[in-house]
Amino acid sequence: MDSLIKFFFSILVISSLIFGEINGVESASSNHHYRRYHHAHLSGPRKLFVFGDSYADTGNIKKPHAVSWRVPYGNTFPGKPSGRFSDGRVSTDFLARVLGIKTPFAYLWKDSVGKERLRNGMNFAYGGTGVFNTNSTSPNMTIQINLFEQLLGDIYSQSDLSSSLALVSVAGNDYSNYLALNRSIAALPIFIKQVVDQTELNLRRIHVLGVKKIAIPSLQPLGCLPRYTSSQGCNETYNALVNYHNSLLEQVVAKLNNETNHSTFAIIDFYNAFLTVFKNKGENPESKVFETPLKPCCEGSCGNVDEKGANKYTLCDNPESAFFWDGLHPTQEGWQSIYSVLGKPLSASLLKL
Q1: Which helix (H) or strand (E) holds 215?
Q2: Considering 138, 207, 247, 329, which one is annotated as catalytic?
């Protein structure tokens, strides 16, 4: 493991020299709870199309098949399970707020509403999925983009796409699936390169289909997710792997923007935003201070009960006091802090078409 960490560290040093540090973060002023962002949207994206996983899913998996449709998920917003993998709003909701539009409907429900209600875009993200197939039976990202393409010319026109933004969420399911299959740690760098290469193909395809602006979050520090932490704190081996992923992703985005001669592709710096929130002791007023940021609110097998109907989990008294909701996902307050830390630079990079 030590040699693996040294290998990744050397890669990161070289990458930082060539491509520079990930952009610093600055935040906009904000209010309590679900803070609203106010910007001039005259020339910004008017539609949001979402691809990815549980960090972005707002209810695409059918109710019997996802823990996100079970209590206590959704107990902060909307007050009941809504298919979101959190106590409330998730990344998609906050990004829509940055754009000044309503959260786009999940693809699953598109036939239940009129076309007028689809004017804000659509969410094709499915929890548990990855760039490649995982242990989830839901559509991977390639199939999600297929679903999007099938709607073009019917529900959405090329004119719609010219004023749109795509969120492409790759939150690590490919890697958790890789590790769950007990595949070689030594070969993991090769697999990371494959994931990023496929992500590049996905970004190119979405752009060719006509989407004007595409945002992709950097991979969050997986080693700091409660599922992977220990009494010593974050798993730094996992975080070294994450940094390798992110360095490759930065190279891809730089290459794509150079080819398009435009800032078409933008990285949302989740990695540094997560760490900024974890480390905040009050010096960053835009982020809430979480006393135990790596401790989830819903501990155990969240959302599940035993054969007698007893909960297989324990719940904290106040989800707003916790950054993580369960072993993998932030609370609504956690996501609020992430987007508050990202703040003005994020808005500036995404609102310009």
Answers
A1: strand 213-217
A2: 329
